[in-house]
Amino acid sequence: MEFFVISLLNGVSYGLLLFMLSSGLTLIFSMMGVLNFAHAAFYMVGAYVAYSIGLKIGFFPALFVAPVVVGLLGAMVERYGLRTVHKHGHVAELLFTFGLAYIIEELVQMVWGKIPVDYRVPELLNFSAFTMFSTTYPAFRMFMLCMSVVVFIALLLLLTRTRVGLIIRAALSHPNMVGALGHNVPMVFMLVFGVGCGLAALAGVIAGPALVTQPAMAASLGPILFVVVVVGGLGSLPGAFIASLLIGLIQTFAVAVNVSVADVLGHVGITLTRDSIGGDLWMATVAQVAPIIPYMLLVLVLIFRPKGLMGDRDT
């Protein structure tokens, strides 16, 4: 029971972190139709900027300042880079953001170095939230969980219950009509891209102390981010939320299961050894193949349900 409850909490915490990171990408795609390959790089920049600002003014001011700084950077990228590339089609956009991700990574290494920085959990949240069985659960992880839920509710209400959300959604499907009504459609797109990058930075600010803040942090979470977005359904915020929780729980439980196919078959009288055909494969435990499980799920979704769990357009 202890293993199940603690793994469940860890899976939900990790899944909600994935959602906070993927929400910005989902917002950008659903509003602009742009798959931003540099999105995880903005997440990394958010962590580093928060670290530097936090040294001067503390973690909680940095929690608000860093996403604004990175959001402004993202808005400038859209205004002076992506907007020009956009007229050449989606392939040009993908290549632009792909190259941008590498540029940002190299700049981060030039400014902060190649080794991890000492980005720590703030003292105010550096305690045990509760003790369950014999395991203590950190308060900072509960903070991460609550922040992710707040972001989900805020985005959902913004897009579905406000005039701003109505204008943003209308600008995607009917940009000429929205422009004729007096709204600055390019400005709307710039703001959406900036907010999406700011959300990625917010995830970096929160994840930085819990995980390792280093130049490789973007590459470690970048691929899984696109798994979340595709499985949930491109452009679907609720879909990204469900997919994040699903993948978080699957990976968390999988890494703790030290059982192989050979072990399962052994209980029914079938013996497999390394000398059998594909012996090494049957001997591999669930924990060993856990890192590729989300990508197997991605492949299955693309084959059997290209729209994802809650998407309204094909991948």
What is the element layout, followed by pairings?
Blueprint: H1 2-32, H2 39-57, H3 59-86, H4 90-112, E1 128-132, E2 135-138, H5 139-161, H6 163-173, H7 175-180, H8 185-210, H9 217-232, H10 237-254, H11 261-266, H12 279-283, H13 286-289, H14 293-304
Antiparallel strand pairs: 1-2
Helix pairs in contact: 1-5, 1-8, 1-9, 1-10, 2-3, 2-4, 2-8, 2-9, 3-4, 3-8, 5-6, 9-10, 9-14
Protein traits:
72% helix, mainly alpha, 2 strands, 315 residues, single chain
Descriptive overview:
By secondary structure, the protein is an all-alpha fold. It has a domain at 2-215. 72% of the residues lie in helices and 3% in strands. The protein is built from 14 helices and two strands, in the order ααααββαααααααααα. The protein has helices at 2-32, 39-57, 59-86, 90-112, 139-161, 163-173, 175-180, 185-210, 217-232, 237-254, 261-266, 279-283, 286-289, 293-304; strands spanning 128-132, 135-138. The chain has a two-stranded antiparallel sheet. The protein starts with a helix and ends in an 11-residue tail after the last helix.
